[in-house]
Amino acid sequence: MPRFKIPEITVERLSIYLRAIKKFHHEEILSSQRLAELVGTSDGQVRKDLAYFGEFGVPGQGYKVGKLKGEISHILGLDREQRIALVGVGKLGSALLAYPGFKSEEFKIKAAFDNDPSKVGRTWQGVTIQDVKKIPQVISREKIDLGIITTPVPAAQQVANKLIEGGVKGILNFAPTRIVVPDHVKLRNVDLAIQLEGLSYFLTQVGP
Hints:
By secondary structure, this protein is an alpha/beta fold. The protein has helices at 8-21, 32-39, 43-51, 65-75, 91-98, 135-142, 153-166, 192-206; strands at 29-30, 57-58, 62-64, 82-87, 107-114, 123-124, 127-131, 146-149, 170-173, 186-189.
C-alpha cells in the first residue's frame, strides 16, 4: 500500500470501478477508456487513480479484469471479512440488518444492540439483539472493527464512546448529529436530511 495519503474521492472511485468490472469475465481485458465510459469519468482519471497503488495494466491493452478485481478488492480490504456491529434497532437499523449487502462475503453484521428491553434477546435477520451496556465487551470478544450508529441523537455520542472503548476502528453514523472520535478512528456521517435539503435547494433554483 502507498505510504502517502490517498484522496478520499479516489477511494470512493475504486469502489465504483470494482462494481463496474464485476460484470465482466475474469480473463477479459478492459481498457482505461472503456472503464471510464462505464463509470462516467475520463480515462486519465482512471489511470491516475489506479497509479496511486501500482501498475496493474497490460501495456498497450488495458487491465486484465481478474487481476484488477483482485487488486482493488485487496486495496479496499474486501479480501477478508469485515465484522460489523450495529447499534439502534429501530426502523432504520432493522432495515440495515435486512440489507443484502451485509450478508455478502465481505461484510457481516456480527452483533446488534439496543436499549429497549422489549427488543433485547430477540433475533432479527439471524442476529440476536443485545443490551447496549454489553457493547465494549462484545466488540472486543468478537474482534469487530466497524460500527454503525442508528440511534436517536441524544444517545449517539455515548454509543460512539462505547464502540471505541471496545476497539472499533471505523464508525458509520446515521444519527443526524455531530459526534467526536479520536484521530485513530475513521468517522463517516450519513445525514439523509442534509441530502434531501440539498436536493430541495436544487429544485428551487431550476424552478417548476
